Amino acid sequence: MATAFEEAITKAVAEEVVPGAAVIAVDKNGATKYAKAFGNTNVGPTGKPWQLDTTMWLASCTKISTAVAVMQCVEKGLLSLDNPISNILPEWKEAEILTGFDENDKPILKKATKSLTLRHLLTHSSGLGYVRMNPLLEKYAKALGKPLDHPQTTIRDDFKLPLLFEPGEGWEYGCSIDWAGKMVEEVNGGIRLGEYMEKNIFEPLGMTLTSFRPSEHPAVKDRLAGRPFRTPEGKVIPEAPNVGMYPVQEPQDDYGGAGLHSCAQDYIKLIASLLANDGKLLKSESVDELFRPQLKDTKYIQAVMDNPEAAAFLAPSFGTGVKWNYALGGAVAVDGVEGRIDAGTMHWAGLPNSFWWIDRHRGIGGVYANHFFPPADPPTQKLFALFQRDMYTLAG
């Protein structure tokens, strides 16, 4: 018998509400409980059937991989969560806070009095933001001629931005994880982040279709999904018109916050390893720390998540009213959501409407792999919610 999700997505694909997706769920023992692909990778003649090995840009689903890389370096004594990041990245020794603009639209900056730490970066309590998601930063970037969209060239070119508040005294989703990835590179002899991940994450897990650079990996490039886009009128067209929503070229740097390409069958291996706490990537205590809620005061993140527009991007399908904290690896539900996730579940999403979650209490993890624009697509979020509910029903 078809599940509610299967019926809904089959209908949505047939009516061209969504092109398609690939979904996988696993249990705490690493066993696959559900795996299926639906629809096509695009509308029109360029579309091919979605497969579990169809590759796509992960966007912010990259972040959990970088968090794992950071924790591996912490285990080795190469990095500390609480030392100033300027010990590794000297450009942050004199961090400044953007407080506004004068009558001539010149940025008003003041020196930060607190040091940025790696823990601040991983929890988005650093004060760093994304230009397109913050009006102050967008105005600042335009005034200085900095890129408005990312990834473009290098992390230092794109993301050497002023802070929006003193480190630890706010919550702002942004480019912090890209800088964390840069720290991993620096303490490993300056190698690319992708090279580090290949050796320490992808190879141990057998992730053969995951890369920052599809041009250098034909198997990844040849499987890339299209970039279908929903217009404001609701019509699905074959190509996203806003190039700022997708890397127009491979940047010089490996962006630890948004640069990976992968597929459902690869990505679920990372989710399964962390859910099982199998020791392949991290010691048990490091995994515990990765999931532990880190924010002592949740009022800042809650203020963001209680904004409906922000929640559509940062708590996709959950809406407002859910209590959140943030761990080193993603957002953590404080109380859980009835019929879906339990308290302590960690999750995050990627711009092309892809989602992942890990519920250690119930022993369920999953990925909804997609490559559909723009982000925060309501019909897709409804389908993801149905998929997640069905997985909990199947788990009993």
Automatic annotation (TrEMBL):
Keywords: Hydrolase. Signal peptide: none annotated. The keyword Hydrolase applies. Pfam families: Beta-lactamase. Residues 5-378 form the Beta-lactamase-related domain. GO terms for molecular function: hydrolase activity. InterPro entries: Beta-lactam-related, Beta-lactam/transpept-like, Diverse_Enzym_Activities. Gene3D superfamilies: DD-peptidase/beta-lactamase superfamily. Belongs to the class-A beta-lactamase family. PANTHER family: (LOVD), PUTATIVE (AFU_ORTHOLOGUE AFUA_5G00920)-RELATED, BETA-LACTAMASE-RELATED. This is Beta-lactamase-related domain-containing protein. It comes from Exophiala dermatitidis.
